[in-house]
Amino acid sequence: MIKRKANAVWEGDLMKGKGSFSVDSGAFSGKYSFSTRFEDEKGTNPEELIGAAHAGCFSMAFSGDLSKAGYTVDQIETEAQVSMEKKDTGFEITGIKLVTKARVRDIDMETFRKIASGAKENCPVSKALKAVPIQLEAHLLKANS
């Protein structure tokens, strides 16, 4: 079993407090606050980190599925747009939209979209986030020669 760890520390009350995230590998650390999460202050937030994890997971899964199907992948770039709304019970993540642009050699659009859809459904982060609607917009770009 593979285990990955991350850590968060929060100091103070919700509105004026501050926090920090870090990952066990040391590859990332960042600060967050109420205003970086719910307003437009510069900094990070949990939803942005979920988006980064989802974009990375999907891109790897998509690459793997394309390779298994015999296609050569030049590049996959994915943006995850995580939507959050204030509801009666508080804030909720209400959806994630994956927008991917890929350069894949000798593939038709129908096959490309089918494999992209399968990667969206089956990457581990998508599976973990099944309580949230996940949309996919997949663009096939001209592959490198």
Explain this structure to me?
The chain is of the alpha+beta class and about 140 residues long. The chain folds into two domains: about 35 residues, no CATH class; about 90 residues, GMP Synthetase, Chain A, domain 3 (2-Layer Sandwich). The chain contains four helices and six strands, in the order E-E-E-H-H-E-E-H-H-E. It has a three-stranded antiparallel sheet with strand order 1-2-3. Strand 2 and strand 3 form a beta hairpin. Helix 2 crosses helix 3. The longest helix is centred in the middle third of the chain and has 23 residues. It is elongated, with a radius of gyration of 18 Å. The chain starts with 5 loop residues before the first strand and ends with a strand. The model has no long low-confidence stretch (mean pLDDT about 95).
Task: State the distance separating the first and last CA atoms.
Answer: 40 Å
Helix content: 25-40%
Mean pLDDT reading: 96
CATH class of the largest domain: Alpha Beta
Secondary-structure element string: EEEHHEEHHE
CATH architecture of the largest domain: 2-Layer Sandwich
SS elements, strand count: 6
Stretches where pLDDT is under 50 for at least 5 consecutive residues are none
Looking at this protein, list some descriptive labels:
32% helix, 2 domains, 145 residues, alpha+beta, GMP Synthetase, Chain A, domain 3, 3-stranded antiparallel sheet, 3-stranded mixed sheet
